[in-house]
Automatic annotation (TrEMBL):
InterPro entries: UCP037692 (IPR017263). This is YheE family protein. The lineage of its organism: Bacteria, Bacillati, Bacillota, Bacilli, Bacillales. It comes from the Bacteria.
């Protein structure tokens, strides 16, 4: 489960897609950029079970951004 998930727009114009994301997973902090097509560009560490984490992030972004 992701903890302390947060996101913010990469651009001053909030209508442009692209978000900076950060969260904790298994007590490790991860950061990245979430692109409009759903691609995640990791900054630093990549989670060992990346596909599972990506699914959780996609669900959260759909709920918070695209709702």
């Amino acid at each position: 489960m992701l903890q302390h998930f947060s996101f913010k727009s990469l651009y001053e114009n909030k209508q442009l897609p692209g978000w900076s994301i950060s969260f904790f997973y298994k007590q490790v902090r991860y950061t990245g950029e979430y692109e409009p097509d759903g691609t995640i560009n990791w900054i630093g560490n990549v989670p060992a079970d990346e596909e599972t984490v990506k699914k959780m992030i996609h669900e959260l972004m759909l709920f918070h951004v695209y709702d």
